[in-house]
């Protein structure tokens, strides 16, 4: 995984060679415009989490875990049938933008396809540990905007 997050200018380069495979797990990172710390606002954060749930309810994705950081989202999901990863992200960004009253996200996103089942749990641990690494909390349970299917008995 690349250490730098995508920028609007680099968004096109991130799409080169992107291939979407239904049923494949992807680790996706997308960033708020101008790295604004938009999700310090509880209402905006909860509305965005509901948008992730809507993507799942529509069969576009199956969320394995996510963490919504103040200025970006890490989302480990399985791609639904009949839709590309780019289309899921376009719909998510559009839907969340409408719910939050206007454009929220930078163009583009970073993705990594997980090729092996054994990669899922380490990727999920990486995702949910973000608030700890960022120094936002001392215990993961203190951070409100994350979830993982393994806690719900689904993993």
What does this structure look like?
This protein has 155 residues and is α+β, with helices and mostly antiparallel strands. It has one domain (11-148): Transposase IS200-like (Alpha-Beta Plaits). It has 5 helices and 5 strands; from the N terminus they run αβαββαβααβ. The chain has helices spanning 11-15, 42-57, 85-99, 120-128, 130-133, and strands at residues 25-31, 61-68, 72-79, 110-114, 146-148. It has a 5-stranded antiparallel β-sheet with strand order 4-1-3-2-5, sandwiched between helices. Strand 2 and strand 3 form a beta hairpin. Helix 2 (42-57) crosses helix 3 (85-99). The chain is globular, with a radius of gyration of 14 Å.
Secondary structure layout plus pairing:
Elements: H1 11-15, E1 25-31, H2 42-57, E2 61-68, E3 72-79, H3 85-99, E4 110-114, H4 120-128, H5 130-133, E5 146-148
Antiparallel strand pairs: 1-3, 1-4, 2-3, 2-5
Helix pairs in contact: 2-3
Organism: Alloalcanivorax marinus
InterPro entries: RAYT_transposase, Transposase_17, Transposase_17_sf
Domain Transposase IS200-like: 21-130
């Amino acid at each position: 995984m690349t250490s730098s997050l995508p920028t609007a200018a680099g968004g096109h380069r991130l799409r080169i060679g992107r291939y979407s495979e239904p049923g494949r797990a992807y680790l996706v990172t997308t960033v708020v415009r101008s790295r604004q710390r938009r999700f310090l606002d509880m209402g905006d954060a909860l509305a965005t989490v509901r948008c992730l749930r809507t993507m799942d309810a529509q069969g576009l994705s199956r969320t394995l875990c996510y963490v919504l950081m103040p200025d970006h989202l890490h989302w480990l999901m399985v791609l639904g049938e009949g839709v590309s990863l780019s289309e899921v992200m376009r719909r998510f960004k559009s839907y969340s933008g409408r719910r939050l009253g206007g454009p929220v996200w930078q163009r583009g996103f970073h993705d990594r396809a997980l090729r092996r089942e054994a990669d899922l749990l380490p990727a999920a641990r990486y995702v949910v540990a973000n608030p700890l690494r960022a120094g936002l909390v001392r215990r993961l349970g203190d951070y409100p905007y994350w979830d993982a299917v393994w806690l719900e008995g689904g993993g």
